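Morning!

As promised:
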Amino acid sequence: MKPDNKLVQWVEINRRAFFHNVAEFRKRLGKTELMAVIKANAYGHGLKEIAGLAEEAGIGWFGVHSLEEGLTLRQAGFRQKILVLGYLPLAGAEDAVQGDLRVTVYNSETLEALARAARKMKRPALVHVKIETGTNRQGIPVGKLGSFLRMSHKHPEVLIEGFSSHFANIEDTTDDIYPKYQLNNFLQALKVAEELGIKIPVRHMSCSAAAILFPETYFNLARVGIGLYGLWPSRETLVSCRLRGQQPLKLKPVLGWKAKIAQVKSVPRGAYVGYGCTYRTTRPTKLAVIPVGYYDGYDRSLSNAAYVLVKGKRAQVRGRVCMDFIMADITDIPDVSLEDTVTLIGSDGRDKITADQLAALAGTINYEIVTRINPFIPRLIV
Ligand SMILES: Cc1ncc(COP(=O)(O)O)c(C=O)c1O
């Protein structure tokens, strides 16, 4: 799709890159099924847009954070298995059952609310029990799992379809001690179920980094987010991959972020630029005013730090990032005009700016750079 002329900024989603990344993960995962983690507006890439591409790629599982995200997908007509990874408010149980959403559970209150909803709707509630293996976020500790499972027996309308867990320290290190400890705890949890004679058909704990590095964590489903968008979970993951003698996946970034120049202006030497007068020109300077700001997800910490691409060349951001604007120095880029395209993330000519580069400048991770791109900005599949 070509950008509508009336847009001042847009996000481009590269379908070939997405399919390529799906194929890379499928190659790695072998028989293990792939869940596309599309929470947080598909990591800023657009929930429905990415769900559409994932459907085309034949992905059968979607992971979302909230009831709302799950229902949005159902209303849009998606029939895949959808697992709510986040917290389901008790009052949302009926909507979840009605919407055929799988729910992550780790307390008796949620299980009982789902049982009531299932009885009322006369259809089973499907749940995945989250096991606390060491992240200390959501989950039931292995020591309490037996009593939870025995309690769940009183609610035959709730079907325990899966067990899941999530790694705490897999992206931040090249050390595998903690993932191994968590994996061991997960295996213990599966043993508890087995000893109670409970079959757990779907078992999953791999995120992108685990899918890249640890085949022993695959089980029969892997929840992959960042990697499908063509971004590495971290530099450590890439280093670990090399240290283990594994062939790194060839990931291709899916997202590009573009805008139109809203004004080209010349200012004299010694002029201040933007709020707080944090930048002062050292020569007669040409500025491009770009209608993107921190409201759009262009982090304020990129003030006087990042660059954008104009006509394939780097234009340094001058002054502070405003709510809706940034100014970039185009003095050394000839023939820039009003409404020329600016690249905030992505390639232009032979240069590029990546989410990882912006993350390094902003003191954060690529996940945050992409997920915080304002959902109101149109996502165009190209
Ligand atoms: C529960 C859960 N599973 C899977 C993922 C996907 O992780 P990644 O994007 O690193 O693949 C996340 C991401 O935060 C998550 O919270």
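The radius of gyration is 24 Å.

Hope this helps with the figure draft.
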